[in-house]
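tool_log.txt
---
The assistant was asked to compare two proteins side by side. It first ran the structure predictor on the initial sequence, then on the second. Raw inputs and outputs are pasted verbatim so the downstream comparison step can read them without reformatting.
(1)
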Amino acid sequence: MNDATSRANSRFAPEPTVPVWDLLVRVGHWVLVATFAIAYLTGDDLLTTHVWAGYAVGVYVLVRVVWGFVGSKHARFADFLFSPVKGLKYLVDLLRRRSPRYLGHSPAGAMMVFALLLSLTGTVVTGTAELALSRGEGPLALVLAQRDGTAADAQAQTADESRHEESAMQEIHELLANLTLILIAFHVAGVILASVVHKESLLLAMFTGRKRANSSGPRR
């Protein structure tokens, strides 16, 4: 086989890949996609489904936070701790199609991970609080019951206060859920843009766990 043939064959040979995303990260990612979608699309008409999907989101967030300290290299928070300035600079460079390639999370991707974890946590916490208030299990019920002299007056006042609290909590819960959806939209847009700029499918990598080995930029 001559040199020209060897070069031609190497040009069309698949590029070597390396493992990046472990099984827990990949499975958890798609479980989160499914459970958040179910929770967002259900509500009062399918309250039980909504609640259990929300609990599943909460469990994933807790597991992911723990895995961020004890998981594989690219799953650990220490692997993608970047300053907000670096994250914004990377995003600008990405829009200019000249950003360096990272094996793990890029600085902009890292910002999105933390933003999503925070917004998901807030959504789950406020949803749980709203559910507790709707069942009369809020902390205010206990305070008022102990403070007031009569059980009847305490119960009436508690019900009124709980309705106000429940309404406010519902608004915050819906706001955070919508904020999370907006973040997801930006996340998808960023994945598409980065895939185009770096000429590799980040979506496929979240199924296979592998990415192209060579890199023109820093490898982290």
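(2)
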Amino acid sequence: MDKQQEQLDSIREIRSLMERSSRFSSLSGLAGVVVGVLAIAGVIAAYLFLGISPSQPAYYSLLSNEQGELNMNLVTYLAADFIFVLIASLIAGLYFSAKKAKQQNQPVWDVTARRLLINLTIPLLAGALYCLILLYHGHIALIAPASLIFYGLALLNASRYTINDIRSLGIIEIVIGLIASLFISYGLLLWALGFGLLHIVYGITIYLKYEK
């Protein structure tokens, strides 16, 4: 009986080692919280610059005139706003992931991390190009929903190389993106929900589940 138990323990240990070697486990819950706060701050900055409140949902109507010509000052500001949020979020994610990996005595950059990055990047790049195409054709209202959908697809695609919670997050992001596509007047608010509040909830959940 003892020998059989030892064999089972050995199998469990081998399985655990294989899972750790094939999955990137240094994603930080604190990074998710920071990313969520940054996203909400970015949306608040956008509303303040546009001079409207969330109760005035059709924000995109301010970005072009009746002839469909874009107001480049507003478009440039919003683009700079969200690019800043993106860069700051990447820095926060890298910092907290590196810090967690160091605490766990694990490498930050290995084969699994590279696979995760590649599978995450391909849908994100496709989404970025698609959003630029939407902007080119003047379909500004669909940019926020499209970014949510492609981000969700990126998380779903990368989830096989990290914790399973990422898969659930990706699915929810896709659902919110589809809802935002249906209710385009509320796209900016739903963007804040998907990239902001949802990341905060996800970050707290990951922190309590794996890091506390």
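---
observation on (2): The chain is about 75% helix and 0% strand. Helices lie at 2-22, 29-50, 72-103, 111-136, 143-158, 165-182, 187-211.
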